[in-house]
Design brief:
The complex is a heterotrimer of chains A (277), B (290) and C (442). Chain B has 290 residues and is mainly α. Chain B is built from 13 helices and no strands. Chain B starts with a helix and ends with a helix. Chain C is built from 19 helices and ten strands. Chain C is globular, with a radius of gyration of 23 Å. Chain C has two domains: 176 residues, D-Maltodextrin-Binding Protein, domain 2 (3-Layer(aba) Sandwich), CATH 3.40.190; 221 residues, D-Maltodextrin-Binding Protein, domain 2 (3-Layer(aba) Sandwich). The N and C termini of chain C lie far apart (53 Å). In chain C, the strands form three sheets. Chain C has a five-stranded mixed beta sheet with strand order 2-1-3-10-6. A three-stranded antiparallel beta sheet of chain C has the order 8-7-9. In chain C, helix 9 crosses helix 10 and helix 18 packs antiparallel against helix 19. The chains are: A mainly alpha (277), B mainly alpha (290), C alpha+beta (442).
Chain lengths: 277, 290, 442
């Protein structure tokens, strides 16, 4: 920022933006507070809640006792990570080819791929459910890895494509002149340049897969159920449940929240398919 | 640079992705279209006879159908309006010099990472509950009657929750666009005595136009299939007040277990989504070329 | 298999070590359950069974409407995701007759289990074509919960006989004190055939209404339905809590236990929980009277039981049956009594438990509850003749869809989103549509 700004303006700006930011963040902060309260305190008036002195970990213990958090957490990790990795394995070559060996129809193919994202999931749930039943994939992690990979594949390809597009073709040609084979070209020249793009693609897709709540809820029962299913069991009260719901919510969103904060820059690019940098 | 050999190689590299996506599209889609012509209720196993267009007739004459179309429109339009306008305001604000930019940005962005189910449940119970919620506590403290959010203004409440989740997205993208604005141009216009409003209208807004289009396009893709937020808060009600097209299909195929009817709805939704898609694709395509 | 291994390995590479590969020694069964208090208790006590048998249980705990959707999808498609599911008096006979459930007739041969100890009426409700398809955890009818302290403070007389809904509305109005956080009455408003329509269904019965006439013609546009739903909306608007259209059984139970409701017509099975000082703030000041009547006293209290069944698609029938026996055995109920208090024992299942001195002492209301349950006649639920059985539901498979739709419409009327007339007219249109589609009527 070139212009000199008075401290007073900065303070005013900070105050306004800080207040608005706090309001946006407040719901998350609030469940964090409630998750450390007892159930009886959690339904009291907001100010009383804040100043009641009993802080406890009981809610976390209760949630863990009722629904094994770590099992669901591991399922989420495997499903989100697995689907992203599987997607990358298929998408990297495709995006590479489209970026460096563009054909007349490349653009159409890309458009078509993105249009498959438009299929409303509910429209095809029953067919997928029946296919899963017949192939024994219901309530398996491998099945969900497959479905979520397919759902996010268009986005993965698009993101990688926009990143690869920016790698100058001359470098490749220079490498080729030096007698590099295709394999060497990919390993020694392309990969180092592509790593940042691949990394941010991976981040965004892990987040999307982590939060996916339609397929994960409808295709799992117990064994493969990820955190979205874990949270679903708290959707209606049995007695006082605000503290437990808060604890469960915090446990479900914390990993991805932390991950998201670290990757916000890449997210902008990823989500806009490179249209905004 | 593309030799014949490399083109063949390229084709080979693209083909797994194309084949998978083609399969993913054709198999379930084909089954859905096929089911939509059958009398097929999960609760009445039998020989599922072919019934022609009957399911489509029943779907279009469903009393909830027009409501669902209307709600989908309002939901998508409402969230888009709030997040775009709000996002522009937030971006302008966050672009100004201040202390602790990093922390404030993190707070603003956080809601985007929250699972839809979690945000639905949290807003419903801890905030909008008319007896124990925070909003009710404030209303009572100020001497007002608490609002029964999901009874009195159900669709607005859903729009509010969804907007909360997508406002960070719009802000993030618009802020990134804003930061690439040419400062010298701004300063020059300032010297010329342009008012802030003029600057905004003639410099800032045109500069952000492309980012705004992108925000609208991408959000539309996701907003058309809003589901989890409705499921955990209102179940599409009261009545059909919060039933969107996605939820209506869910009701037909998984609450009435009428797969034929649900599939007909699915086909209709797919066609509608593709009309929107063609429109969106064109614009995204243009943006990418630019 | 190799793909799976590759994926799992890559997932490890992704940075998260998989700590334990599950070793399958004994059976691992999956149970789908609703998140009601008695089921949560079962989940807490189940490790005893797991230790005794070496089997392990995966619990899938869901909200009632979601549970129905998941279990029905699974069983109708033969998905086989669940080995045991909690289902009710509505689903069991229908699914049993279709061959979707494993018959449990051999339970009668087990002397230790003593099947005859389970009330005959309840067993009948869970049978089809003479075969037993589910065993009950608890059974219930509906009655009125009320707060003795609030009645006294407001000078409202506690009824000794079955009162009319008109009198009930006056009572609720007299008790209504929203400024002090007390609502005259809490009733179910959350849409769903098993939620608001359970109460509204019995209310409609009391007003002389019926779902269908003898020719299966829907009757939702009848004056009786109109009177009942109008009464319901007026009652809740005048004396109900805010946001009533979002409250189901569990929400109301939480409100009542928290001391916010003066009256509540709901399941007898909640009585133990509400009267349990460990879980309720109003345990000492709650008592019960009959659900009100109006034009008739027929069908004014519903009949329901939550029961455990084994889908025919389960591969682990033996382990599942063993769990069913354990979870509905005399020992189980005694265990609940010892650990959670005898007042919290699931009610309306076993005669021996209901007659147990410890139970009667801790829950003096229990015998009356059992009498009330056993006096319900699902085969004769309404003032006018009907072709169906079921008090608050109609035992045909189309009812789920119709009941849910009508439930949504009634919730809309309650929330003020539509008028009672509109709601019932829509309901009638929908019911006619569905019954036409199903071939009941032309």
């Amino acid at each position: 920022m070139a212009r000199a700004v008075s401290t007073r303006t900065k303070v005013t700006n900070t105050a306004i933006a800080g207040t608005l930011g706090f309001m946006m963040f407040f719901p998350i902060l609030w469940i964090l507070v409630l998750s450390f309260k007892t159930e009886e305190d959690a339904i009291r008036a907001p100010l009383e809640v804040l100043f009641s002195s009993d802080w406890s970990l009981d809610s976390f213990a209760a949630v863990q006792a009722r629904s094994d958090y770590f099992k669901h957490f591991m399922n989420s990790v495997i499903i989100a990570g697995g689907s992203t990795l599987a997607g990358l394995i298929i998408a990297v070559p495709a995006a590479w080819a489209m970026a460096f060996v563009p054909a007349k129809r490349t653009k159409d193919v890309l458009m078509w791929m993105l249009s498959t994202k438009m299929l409303p999931p509910v429209g095809v749930l029953i067919p997928i459910y029946l296919l899963f039943r017949d192939t024994g994939l219901l309530d398996t992690r491998i099945g969900l890895v497959g479905v979520l990979m397919m759902i996010n594949l268009p986005i993965i390809i698009w993101m990688l494509y926009t990143y690869f597009k920016e790698i100058p073709g001359e470098i490749l040609e220079a490498a080729r002149m030096d007698g590099a084979s295709l394999r060497e070209e990919i390993i020694y020249v392309l990969t180092p340049m592509a790593i940042p793009g691949i990394a941010s693609t991976l981040l965004l897709n892990v987040i999307l897969a982590w939060n996916e709540a339609f397929w994960t809820l409808n295709l799992t029962a117990a064994k493969a159920a990820p955190l979205t299913a874990f949270i679903a069991s708290y959707s209606s009260p049995e007695g006082l449940f605000y503290a437990k719901l808060s604890a469960a919510s915090i446990m479900a969103i914390a990993p991805i929240l932390i991950m998201g904060w670290f990757s916000q820059k890449q997210l902008v690019r990823g989500l806009t398919f490179g249209a905004v940098k | 640079m593309s030799t014949k050999a490399s083109r063949t190689a390229a084709r080979l590299m693209i083909s797994p992705a194309v084949i998978l996506l083609l399969g993913w599209m054709i198999v379930p889609l084909g089954m859905t279209i096929y089911f939509s012509f059958l009398r097929y209720n999960l609760l009445q196993p039998g020989n599922n006879p072919f019934v022609g267009w009957e399911n489509y007739y029943w779907f279009f004459t469903d009393p909830s159908f027009s409501a669902a179309m209307f709600n989908t429109l309002i939901l998508v339009g409402g969230v888009l309006a709030i997040t775009t306008i709000g996002g522009i305001c937030f971006a302008l604000l966050l672009d100004r010099p201040m202390f602790g930019t990093g922390i404030i940005r993190i707070m603003v962005i956080a809601p985007f990472f929250v699972m839809p189910t979690v945000s639905g449940l949290v807003w419903k119970n801890m905030f909008m509950n008319p007896v124990n919620g925070i909003f009710a506590a404030f209303a009572n403290a100020l001497g007002f009657q608490p609002i029964d959010f999901f009874g009195q203004i159900p669709l607005a409440s859903i729009i509010f929750i969804v907007s909360w989740m997508w406002l960070p997205f719009a802000t993030l993208i618009l802020l990134t666009a804003l930061q690439s604005l040419d400062q010298e141009q701004m300063e020059a216009s300032e010297m010329d005595g342009a008012s802030w409003l003029n600057q905004f209208w003639y410099l800032i807004l045109p500069h952000m136009a492309r980012a705004i289009t992108v925000v609208i396009l991408i959000q539309t893709i996701f907003l058309l299939s809003i589901f989890a937020e409705i499921l955990v808060t209102t179940n599409g009600g009261p009545g059909t007040a919060t039933t969107n097209l996605t939820y209506l299909i869910y009701v037909s195929s998984l609450l009435q277990f009428d797969v034929g009817l649900g599939s007909a709805g699915g086909v209709v939704a797919i066609i509608l989504a593709n009309i929107v898609a063609i429109f969106l694709m064109r614009m995204i395509g243009k943006n990418l070329d630019a | 298999m190799s793909i799976k291994r590759t994926l799992l390995t890559t997932a490890v590479g992704f940075g998260c070590a998989i700590t334990s590969a599950s070793v399958v020694s004994a059976d691992e069964i999956t149970i789908a359950t609703v998140n009601n208090a008695d089921m949560i208790t079962m989940q807490e006590l189940a490790p005893a069974w797991e230790e005794a048998t070496g089997n392990t249980i995966n619990w899938v705990v869901l909200e009632e409407n979601v549970l129905r959707q998941r279990t029905t999808t699974d069983i109708a498609t033969g998905g086989g995701s669940f080995d045991i599911m909690f289902i009710g008096a509505y689903e069991t006979p229908i699914w049993g007759a279709k061959g979707w459930l494993t018959p449990l007739d051999d339970f009668a041969d087990d002397a230790d289990y003593n099947l005859d100890d389970i009330f005959q009426l309840v067993r009948n409700g869970l049978s089809a074509d003479g075969s037993l398809y589910a065993v009950p955890l608890y059974s219930e009818t509906s009655f009125t919960f009320y707060r003795t302290d609030l009645f006294e403070a407001a000078g409202v007389e506690v009824p000794t006989e079955q009162i009319s809904y008109t009198e009930f509305a006056e009572m609720a109005a007299a008790l209504h004190d929203p400024d002090n956080g007390i609502y005259g009455t809490c009733q179910r408003g959350k849409a769903g055939w098993g939620e608001n329509m359970a109460f509204v269904g019995t209310l409609a019965n009391a007003f002389g209404a019926r779902w269908f006439d003898e020719d299966w013609q829907p009757q939702l546009d009848s004056p009786e339905w109109n009177a009942a739903v109008t009464y319901y909306v007026d009652l809740m608007t005048a004396s109900g809590p805010p946001g009533a259209s979002a409250n189901g059984h569990n929400e109301n139970r939480a409100l009542f236990k928290d001391g916010k409701c003066a009256t509540w017509v709901d399941a007898t099975s909640a009585a133990g929980d509400v009267r349990n000082p460990a879980t309720s703030t109003v345990a000492d000041v709650t008592d019960f009277f009959k659900a009100p009547m109006q034009a008739t006293n027929k069908g004014t209290g519903w009949f329901w039981s939550w029961a455990l069944a084994i889908p025919a698609s389960s591969q682990k029938t033996d382990a599942a049956k063993d769990f069913l026996k354990w979870a509905t055995s005399q020992e189980y109920f005694e265990m609940v009594g010892e650990t959670k208090g005898w007042v919290a024992v699931p009610s309306g299942t076993r005669q021996s438990i209901e007659e147990d001195a410890r139970r009667v002492e801790a829950a003096p209301f229990a015998p009356a509850v059992v009498d009330a349950i056993l006096s319900v006649d699902p085969a004769d639920p309404t003032l006018l003749p009907v072709p169906y059985t079921g008090v608050q539901f109609v035992a045909i498979e189309e009812f789920q869809g119709i009941g849910n739709y009508v439930g949504q419409q009634v919730a809309a009327a309650l929330a003020g989103q539509s008028t009672v007339e509109e709601a019932l007219a829509n309901s009638q249109t929908f019911a006619v549509r569905e019954m036409t589609r199903a071939g009941y009527i032309e």
